[in-house]
Amino acid sequence: MNMKKPRLKEILHDYQLRVTPGRCDVLNHFLRSSYALSAKDLENRLPQYDRVTLYRTLHTFLEKGILHLIPHDGGFAYFGLSESIRLQLDNTARASSNTHYPDHIHFTCTTCGRTECLSDYMIPQVTLPQGYQIKDVDLLVKGICQACQV
Amino acid sequence: MNMKKPRLKEILHDYQLRVTPGRCDVLNHFLRSSYALSAKDLENRLPQYDRVTLYRTLHTFLEKGILHLIPHDGGFAYFGLSESIRLQLDNTARASSNTHYPDHIHFTCTTCGRTECLSDYMIPQVTLPQGYQIKDVDLLVKGICQACQV
DNA sequence: CAAATAGTACAAATAAGTTGCATATATCGG
DNA sequence: CCGATATATGCAACTTATTTGTACTATTTG
Q1: Domains, chain B, ranges and CATH?
Q2: From residue B149, how far is each of A130, B108, B135, B145 by CA, in Å?
Q3: Distance A135 CA to C25 C1' (A)
Q4: Which of A82, A102, B117, B141 has the fewest beta carbons under 10 Å from its own?
């Protein structure tokens, strides 16, 4: 995941967003992080920006589909890069921002507290009762991550 | 799911909890509700109790395993009856409070906003990369429930 | 490079959840 | 049934996460 800075501007452009230092810095942190970040995490890492700016940036990125929200029972929100961005980074092929990508697994380590998006491990097929229409599936796994094993 | 009141006391006793009006009322609401409830929901339905009392009751019930926490991306917590309580109600056979029950699917309807525990629909087997140890799995499905279909 | 548009900062409000402490109540033994 | 003890409740106040309003500043586009 070695990222050149110019990519930041490209991505923001692709999503019809103005290129500002704040957005570049926030996006950069997500690109470089192997785990999900909370608003608090960003506040700590980017103290030069106002809390509100960070919150608004996160919302904007959510709306545009750059980030996705990870349900969490800790009382606050975690955010991760959307699958479309990950694909943009892996393949050179550019994916359109409204393509639908399959849901991935969110893994939270009870030791280090970090939440990872396990993109390669897809959610198994889910069966629901007749009459239920599925729009979105989120699989949250809690346990101990590779790095924290004894 | 036709419940006689005496069951409330029985359940609280089984879990080594004092029988108070507040706990009976809270438990009763969970027994009668087909969907998960938030602290706010209880506040609205049981205005005779202090907010703090309701929060503390919820925590006590969580600790004892009467309720379980349902991760939710709305920024606040939802609670549902634990599987062990459901089984106590269905079968006459009494289950011990520390038995482990398999995880079920949580369904949130994007139309009515309600979250149901689909007790009969178990979470399929999950595979993670080598070195990840699984402790707990939660599956959240968003979509349109039976009652809200056109 | 200036006008139009959108982003940011600061202050202040709201909402969810928690803590401390004094009072009230449930339970248990007699 | 009664009183002692442990526990639950209510109230006030606090913390933390997030939102809103508004004035100011920066980015984009021609």
Answers
A1: 6-148 (1.10.10.10)
A2: 11, 14, 35, 6
A3: 49
A4: A102
